[in-house]
Each structure stands twice: as C-alpha cells, then as structure tokens.
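User: What would this chain look like folded?
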Amino acid sequence: MRRSLRTLLVLGMFVALPLAGAFASSVLAQDATEIELWLNTVSGSDTAECIVTNAVEPFNALGNGVSVDATIQANSWNATQTAVAGGAGPDVVTTPGPSFAMELAKAGRLVALDPYAEQFGWGERFAEGSLDLGTADGQLFSIPNEIETLVLYYNKTLFEQNEWEPPTTLDELMALAEEVNAAGIIPFANANAEWRPANEWFVGEMLNHSAGGPQLVYDALVGEAEWANPDFVAAIDALNQMQQNGWFAGGLDRYYTGTMAEVGSMFGMGEAAMKIEGSWFLSDVDAYFGEAAGNENEWGWVPFPSVTGEAIFDLGIGSTWSINANSANPDATAQYIDYHFSPETQARLLVECGLVPAAVDLSGQDLTGVNPGLAEILDAMNAAFAEGNYGYTTWTFWPPESETYLIEEIERVWAGEITAEEYLQGHQEVFDAEREAGAVPPIPER
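Assistant: Here's the prediction, encoded as structure tokens.
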C-alpha cells in the first residue's frame, strides 16, 4: 500500500525550528581508501565550500580508513552524466532529483543501496516512506537529500515604498505584476541561463496552483485525469502570458541569458520586485540583501499564489545521493553517505550552511542560529502538509522523459510554435509511455 505523504513528512521530518572553481578537501586520513565527491556551485554561492567544511572535513578528520576528495565545479550534474555514461565519474553520484536518479538506475549506472540501508539502519533513521522516493523496480538506488518547496519571495522594502500587498491569488499576482511593470520595475527576477530546468519550477507551480489544484495533479500522475485538462491548459496559458509580457528578467532574451547572480542582484537592489524560487534560495539570499550587498533592502515571502487563494506548498526532494556503479569502493562510499545523512551532520549543515535537511529526525540537535526566514517557511510547509495542502514538484514525482519534455518543450510555447494545449497533449503521450513502462516514481496517496 502507498504510504500517506502526510505521514511521510509531518511525523518524520524534524522538530519545529527555533526562529531565531576547483576546490579539494585538504584533510585526508593517511593510507585511507579515497572516494570522490563532486559538488555543484552553479549559483555562485559558498554553499559547496560550506558542505566541505562542515561535512567532508570532519569526516576525513575521523581517520576511520576512508577519506573524501571533494571537488567543487560549475554545473557538476552535466559533467557527472557524461562521466558516468563513459564508465567513470565520482564515487558519490548526486543528481538534481529522484527522476534523474531513476533514469540512471534503470540504465544500470547506480549501485542498489538496500544492503547498506539494512547495515546502517536507514529505514529507522529516515521518515517513514521517504526512502520510497529513491526506489526503482523495487530496489533503493538513491537517498533523497533535502526536503524543499517553492515560494514567492518579494522585495519587502520595495513593496512598502510602493504600498503593494503580497498576492494570495493568481489573479492578484497577475494584476500586481502589471502594476509593477507599469512602474518600470521588472516583476520577476528569474532566468535560466545557468540552469535550464528552472523552467519546470514555473510549470509545476502553475499546474499545482491551478483551479484543479494538487488533487488534479495527483489524479493525472496516477493516470486518472488527462494532462490536457482545461484547468491545466489555463494554467500554462497564464504562464505563457507572463513570459510574453516580458515579466521574467525583463523579456525572454534576458531570461535565456541572465545568470543567477545577475537576477539575484536585480532582486536585492529593487530592480525586480519578486522571485519565484525554492527554499534553497535562502542559502544565497544574504549575498543580495543588506549591507554586504550594498543596499538596505529586506526581503519577505508568501506561498506561491493559487487560483483559490489557498496556501499550497509543493513538495520537492532537492537532489539525491547514490553510489556510482563504476565505483571501485562502494562500501567506503556508503560509509561516507551514512555519515553525511546522520542527524548530527544534517543539523550542522542546516545551521551553518542554510541547507534544509533530508527527512531525518533532528530532535535533540542544537539548531540555534537557523535562518529565521527558512524556519518560517519550513514551519508553514509542515503545517500545510498536516492539512493536506501539498502539491508535487516535477523533479520529484515525474518520470525522467516527461520531466525533460516539460522543461524543454515549454520554450516552444513561449516561442509561439505550439499552444498550451498542444504542449500538454504532447506531454500526455510521453507520460503514458513511461507510465506503461513503470517509470513513474512512487506517488504517495493523498
């Protein structure tokens, strides 16, 4: 029986939080078995370095016979895909989400983790049902890294100066964007030059927050509703209108060429009013707001607006961790993965790096110093899950080819080559084929 998503997260994630270029790790145990880990730095933040400082180096200092050589590089996912397909790559394979890991697993590129899950007691450590998201063909192949969601961030100082109110409904959002644009300010600080899958953030939000809501998304994922449903068509039409109006980064040309640092700075400086992004943005937000960023602005957030005005939080798994089938040292690799996902390490990464933890119970850990905004988002997200007000992110619950279709083909809608309905009909064909092949990730029942 499929487990309830509510049970999976609310009971097991963690206790309420207090609101309060190349780089290699240098601490290596002598004569230790060395494993390789590639960390991504696509956002240009210090997050990857923080992971090395607070997870890799403490592990290496244990001197337990295994050491981790951590390399930080831009767009490591593309490099990982190429290397793994060629019979090489790092021992630890990190992907952007469960659907990516499932694709690698089905291609025979990953090691089944079931023996390690039993050895290290992962079934007891992780929230009930959370490891199900890392399975393929009945075996565990990936560890879901961090629980995440998407929200609407806004430049609070700019809003106060212009007497704008954060929107709760999609109609309010569209009307506000019109007003912001008329004031000579870019409505949304979003671009995809460095991360094309950013496209799916907006597609997924619009589908889950449509008139049909998450229930209709669930029905479509389990094959009981059509993707070309009129509610979904209206949602994609609205997203297309936002792009045609030039509301993202100032126009499609800038959307396709803007870097994350550029749109982040645009947002912090008040050149853009809002930003549609995930909870992961909070690990970078201090680089764009406040004295260190050269401004006196403050930021705020609200749930991404829905047609009904109901607060809905879409569940995402922020990347996955697996063992490369090409690894010469899978046991040593599993030993580091076990350490990385221990409650102590996860709590340290949360406090020091602003990384939302995996579905691991952090009760008893010292969480002093957690970003207050992140704590608020996580508390609100947990409350929404308790009430059943959750949606489904595309990189967590869609099969790989269908997800790729959503990311790439939406650009044809924006280019005027196909309609929203044609886009969704094409998605239906790809999705049906993957569903028949058993490639749809586990969908916890509502």
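Residues 199 and 407 are 5 Å apart (CA to CA). If you want, I can go into more detail on any region.
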